[in-house]
């Protein structure tokens, strides 16, 4: 078989076998990330354009993150109670409105309040999207579906970050209006093309509890699931250091912003280039060894930063932990889907995505504090230890069969 024919077959196998509604959801995700301007450039907007202090910009960023944490939990409940589609539509329209208003706000208190609301609205779409994706895609194809969605997120982010820099030179206001417009376009796609996928009583898992009986308390009492969430939190805390501690450490070592740009670009380039072929390799493999491997790669990648003394060496470290991210993301999301009972997918996904919001809030504080008190090498060696700890945790939690989702046992929240 020729190389061209092999490549054609690989592409066909990668993109075939998924329902049409998934691809509309995928397109909505891509459009949304293409317009993800504000969260990336909010700090620069507040300090450079508005003239506020770095402390105030940090406060607003923290409020944006806290709003996101609340949005994950609220949307998780609404996704199960009201449905995936109405929750997604409400989130997207609320995001468009609050982001547009944020662009016109001038008073510090108004900016802070709108930033918190924008963070809440933006994050509220995640449980709905992931629950809908789990509903739409058969179990045997979920790893590939989650990988394609993650690929779209990173492709959209890479393009939006490049475009946002050019747009900001002309007018920061257009960043806000551009994100509002593209998010509203996502809502149009969702309204006309996405079905409601919340399972009804006929599709529910057999058992004594009625559909919708899963509560947030049920999720929090699910020891195995919460262990997975905790392990994910450890790894996401490490990934966040690539955006927070890595530029700080490089700056202290004498590297400039251009050097960091080259180093961190390796993350996006590798994800866009390798996410699909790597997923084809791991799609039907046991999740336990893959999660252990991803944790070790992540820990080793950041641990190597303690030895890095040049831009190529830093690029190598990013390549190592990015491989861990590429393996971890679709495998972890597929595992979460399997551990979530049908009638509680929204709440389970809400708690899972909460770990990302918590990491976004806590990682900058922790990374900066460790560098100030103990130096960057201590942070990188600590990151290696965290990666090894997460690997051991995955090895332990995956010793039990993971096919059976937990049974809900509490009243609705």
Produce the secondary structure layout.
Elements: H1 3-15, H2 20-34, H3 38-49, H4 54-81, H5 84-104, H6 108-123, H7 125-136, H8 142-170, H9 173-193, H10 216-221, H11 223-241, H12 245-252, H13 257-282, H14 287-303, H15 311-339, H16 345-374, H17 376-397
Helix pairs in contact: 2-8, 2-9, 3-4, 4-5, 4-6, 4-7, 4-16, 5-6, 5-7, 5-9, 7-16, 8-13, 8-15, 11-15, 11-16, 11-17, 13-15, 14-15, 14-17, 16-17
Could you characterize what this model shows?
By secondary structure, the chain is mostly helical. Helices cover 78% and strands 0% of the residues. The chain contains 17 helices and no strands. The protein has helices at 3-15, 20-34, 38-49, 54-81, 84-104, 108-123, 125-136, 142-170, 173-193, 216-221, 223-241, 245-252, 257-282, 287-303, 311-339, 345-374, 376-397. The radius of gyration is 21 Å and the shape is globular. It starts with a helix and ends in a 16-residue tail after the last helix. The relative contact order is 0.14. The model is unreliable at 202-212 and 402-413 (pLDDT under 50).
In short:
The chain is mainly alpha-helical. The chain contains 17 helices and no strands. Residues 202-212 and 402-413 have low confidence and may be disordered.
Defining traits:
413 residues, mainly alpha, 17 helices, disordered C terminus
Per DSSP E runs of 2 or more residues, the count of β-strands stands at 0
State the distance separating the first and last CA atoms. Answer: 57 Å
> What's the average pLDDT?
85
How big a fraction of the residues is strand?
Answer: under 5%
